[in-house]
Amino acid sequence: MRTESRIYVGIGAFFVLIVAIYFLWSGDSGNSIFLVASALLGIMPGLYLGWWSRNMSPRPEDVEDVTPDEIRGEVGYFPTYTIWPFVLGMGVFLTALAFVFGEWTAVIGMGFVVSAAIGGTLSSKPNVSRHV
Amino acid sequence: MTIAPERLEEVGPHFEHHGPEPTGIFKWLTSTDHKVIGKNYMYTSLVFFFIAGLMAELIRTQLFAPNNHVVSPQTYNELFTIHGSIMLFIFAGPFVFGGFANFLIPLQIGAPDMAFPRLNALSYWLFLTGSITMLLGFLTASGAAAFGWVAYAPLSDATYSPGAGPDLWIVSVALVGFSGIFTAVNLVTTIFYLRAPGLTMFRMPVFTWNMLVTGILILISFPVLTAALIMLYADRHFGTHIFSVRGGGVPVLWQNLFWFFGHPEVYILALPYFGIVSEVLPVFSKKPIFGYKGLVFATLAIAGLSTGVWAHHMFTTGTVLLPFFSALSLLIAVPTGIKIFTWIGTIWRGNLDFKTPLVFAIGFIIAFTMGGITGVMLASPPIDFYTHDTYFVVAHFHQVLFGSAVFAGFAGFYYWYPKLTGRMYRENLGKVHFWLTFIGFNVTFLPQYLLGLRGMPRRIAEYGPSDGFTFLNEVSTIGAYITAIAFVVFLYNFWVSWRKPIPAGDNPWDGHTLEWATSSPPPSHNFHKLPPIRSLRPTWDMNHPDHADWRVRQEEATAKRASQVESTR
Q1: CB–CB of A86 and B121 under 8 A?
Q2: Looking at CB atoms within 10 Å, which of A65, B161, B191, B298 has the fewest?
Q3: Could you report the per-residue pLDDT of B217-263, keeping only the tens digit for each?
Q4: Are the Cβ atoms of A77 and B1 closer than 8 angstroms?
């Protein structure tokens, strides 16, 4: 976890340096905001990951000479197939088209989005709807 | 399905399926398997590559002769706008960070799937619908967007670009942008949390590293574009004046917002292809990659610097701090140079096997170096003031982007084609594809440098017979036709290997990284068994136990210790 944290913090620190040089040189506050936001985008997740890396023992993927008995727990749950991302995608597409063709596509689109939200939530529990 | 962690050992057969796997169109619609989604991305973006390529051929045909009238000036503007938008937003990016990365990252880090498989599927659907929206503009009464892929204000406002076409462009780019953001979140999470035991960050393949950095760059830059698009839409329809002088707005703000996205975008398109080349070169040189850590840090340096140089596209606006942006742009040449030397160092004295992926990778190095050097020239304000918005710039970015997305992209496509499909392509057809592309590419774009220096502006539909542009334009158009023929050869190769398959085997290239340790094509959830990971090249270590990297390092350490004992005696 420590390397991951250092990558993010390093990126954030780089932007702190750049924004300092840029702002002092140009006095341009508008564009400096981009760089401040980028610095935050690096530092915030970086510190979060760094905090975790201090409060947990190294994961198997962080240990160079890991042995099989050090590996515990599950990797995760991975669904194989489900229709709901497709329904949600079509819903978002139709809703976005409302910006061009008028509100009526959004009405249909939101129907898809809501049904995908319900269906997707239910299918997150493998026992409730086994067929999805 | 829940995946057991003991992946160093045999994982039992998968028994938890909820009924039969869907096939055919249902598989396409419902799969959350990263391999299926990755292939969908790849084939979709290739289809759009051919569509945008046809637009390029039309553009070149129009420019073949002075005062030509193949297409009307309005159609010409639409063609170059949609050509650029498709190539950048829909082909070059998603081909690699949706296609290759989706397919390969879980395989290269020994993961069963991406971290968020359903989000991954949603990204694909947003990408597909966004891409179709881009083409819908041609079906509207007022035609597609015609303001160039950069959509500069005030040209893109409701007065100068009326109609539904520009709105469709905005919606399309927003959909594709969201798809990119979701993919980036997925990639970064997968790389941080789903690596196989023993696969530390500094044992990750270079491609995975580059995709991690690309993901972070996407997260930095794409939201800015989305915000800019919303403002542009508000200007067009809700009466705001963010980008128009009339209401007190600032048109140059659009350029700042757009290029704060647009310059990192160039590296979002280039870095993954650098990663592909860094995978292909060592395997076909039978050597480990030269200067691995240098390459990784060069990638990080490029990512950082690329976000601080956006205004070098705006030198001629007169509103930017020239020395700052010029200096940072020139600095990017340093890490890029490190990369080019590492690649040359990798093939240096290697046991080279000139298969199609390797020749494409070498073609990439040549093309990218040419494009990169003219990029350094353009970073210098005096040269940029002279060549801004001429064909010199067009030639520069086509050499960089065609060099990466096509040469490196197809190096990767041929390299991983056996893993994607389990079939082998035809080697001689691949070589023909390469040589036609390489000749066509250079014949197309080298004359454009000269055209630019002679003063031919970009984005003009016609030029006069006395301008002195005729001959070089003819050469360039012939080059474009040669490139088109090259891709007919590619399609034929693809078709032949599909109709008369030659089984490729699991590891046809004697590959180094984990994706070659599983079967071709990989099973559901990727690995039945993972080799132990003790170095950068786990599959190589497994197949060559006597020359395994960790063993070599151990022997070196022993020898060093022995010599130290010798010298102290």
Answers
A1: yes
A2: A65
A3: 999 999 999 999 999 999 999 989 999 988 888 999 999 999 999 99
A4: yes
